[in-house]
Amino acid sequence: MAKARKHKHLEFHVDRPAAKPFITNSFDEAAGMAISLAASNGRPVNLDVVCWDVAAARVWGGDEGVEQYREDPEASVFERIVVRADAQGRVR
After folding, report:
1. Which one, out of 11, 20, 54, 81, has a CA that is 20 to 30 A from the CA of 34?
2. What are the extents of the domains in the chain?
3. d(Cα 29, Cα 21) in Å, to the nearest integer?
4. φ and ψ at residue 86, rounded to 5 degrees
């Protein structure tokens, strides 16, 4: 899957209820935000990977990422990750 590397044309967008999307160049920051939101409201959260050029697609997905990018360079979302948190309550 993803490499946690950064690239100036690789963004991560996290949907937030009643707010603008959270946008960052860090997968770790985006994943943390998505997990926090999913745990707090119990709903799935979309974490979208946005590649603005071939170089960003290569950082995210290697040679396969480049192929996918070239198939549809105008795609608004390169990859969507749906994050869910299932609160299980107390564990003994």
Report:
1. 54
2. 10-83
3. 13
4. -110, 100
